[in-house]
Amino acid sequence: MTQTVPLLIGGEMIQSESRNLIPVTDPATQAVIAQVPCATEAEVDRAVASAKAAFESWKETPVSERARLMLRYQALLKDNHDEIATILAKETGKTFEDARGDVWRGIEVVEHACNIASLSMGETVENVARKIDCYSYTQPLGVCAGITPFNFPAMIPLWMFPMAIACGNTFVLKPSEQDPLTPMRLAELFREAGAPDGLLQVIHGGKEQVDQLLHHPDIPAISFVGSVAVGEHIYRTGTDNMKRVQAFAGAKNHMVIMPDAQKQQVINNLVGASVGAGGQRCMAISVAVFVGESRKWIPELREAMAQVRPGLWNDPEAGYGPLINPQAKERVLRFIQEGKEAGAECLLDGSECVVPDAPDGNWVGPTLFTRVTPEMSIYREEIFGPVLVAIEAETLDEAIRLINENPYGNGTSIFTASGAAARKYQHEIQVGQVGINVPVPVPLPFFSFTGWRKSFYGDQHAYGKQAVKFYTETKTVTARWFEDDIASGPNMTIALK
Ligand code: NAD
């Protein structure tokens, strides 16, 4: 018997009454490891109602107590780091070390949430007019909701609910139905850390449950991370229902390789950034732009990529795991085929990849294309697999133009020994997260995760100071305390007197 994943409502792990169950499968074997229920309409309503009720007392809870909950939570996450990573690796297929990294990058956000007192400080100016002071507070919004993707089942839920809750809100999480066991373990540990009942609810399902959240009158704010098509739907529907929405979407991230870069650094970093996690990272490098003479390193890049092989989560020699499901594998194979048909040269082809210990897994080997042009689907679309396309440019200006014309703007990097080239690149590139000799520039949580253009819809980003802005309202107070002076009659103007 496989387990049916519970819902977390009102502080209790409960079994859903839904008969609509989705299997959670091991992507290396297709074995069903759990069933996840699509919560009923009444259950989603109960989750929101419970979060709404809990908000009444949580919003009055002193900020230092909220911070202490986060301190206990980060300690528990650290104590259970390996156990969470094991659950995560088994349901996503990620290698154990990569799974630990997924959890770790989430723990860092919880550490950031521990600083909520200083993060939520307002502003004050004394004597804005005679004997009048002005100051601002940040106050929580109410029930916030988060919808998360499959590819970081620890990190991305942890981008959301710790910051929202530290700000004084309560939260309804709808994690990916493809790997719900990790977020459920995170939720259990949050309760163990002493979270009052109703602070965090977890409901499961897909479009129907998400749409109910998007239309729910008691939810003022929605955070989403996932694909472009769903992100656009979430942003449009959420804002149409007068909610504030932050929607992080897909990507096509370029690495520019200047001829003065250090060759071995380029190759090592490019291999890890392109095929690590099977390319299933929104910050994966999927396009390498070789400027000038650096193009002659492509054969060595091919050799280095060919050394990497996918494997089981607990195989220490495996470079990465399987793709999340058979449809994802089919989609990647379709892109590889389209690339060949469009005239790109497939220098390394992972379509026939086999892992003898797990013949039914969703394996795709490292794949490298050259002679790629911007009209080809392998350049235009997010493939989300271990496929790297190489493009050649004569100058840095040409590389910058290419990237700025691409609709996505999540992450990019430049490898160079020239400060002037790096400075020009960081200034002119229309991408929200830039690495200089750093291939995957995911910011630490005291900054924000700042995707641009088609990779993000909204204005306030995840974590950093922007998360506090997203999850709070600012209240500005203008105050005068009368001494014994008598007011000199009514003030008939807008000016403060
Ligand atoms: P997805 O869009 O299929 O699913 C994301 C979430 O939306 C899931 O919880 C899912 O249940 C829900 N959902 C799916 N279809 C829906 C619909 N029609 N209406 C409402 N909700 C729906 O994404 P995924 O495949 O789980 O994740 C991979 C995608 O996420 C990639 O495109 C990747 O680039 C993106 N991603 C972006 C970032 C970022 O920060 N920009 C980070 C991680 C992943």
From TrEMBL:
It comes from the Bacteria. Its EC number is 1.2.1.27. Pfam families: Aldedh. Keywords: NAD, Oxidoreductase. InterPro entries: Ald_DH/histidinol_DH, Ald_DH_C, Ald_DH_N, Aldehyde_DH_dom, MeMal-semiAld_DH. Residues 15-477 form the Aldehyde dehydrogenase domain. GO terms for molecular function: methylmalonate-semialdehyde dehydrogenase (acylating, NAD) activity. The keyword Transcription does not apply. GO terms for biological process: L-valine catabolic process; thymine catabolic process. Gene3D superfamilies: Aldehyde Dehydrogenase, Chain A, domain 1 (3.40.605.10), Aldehyde Dehydrogenase, Chain A, domain 2 (3.40.309.10). NCBIfam families: MMSDH. Belongs to the aldehyde dehydrogenase family. This is methylmalonate-semialdehyde dehydrogenase (CoA acylating). It comes from Marinobacterium nitratireducens.
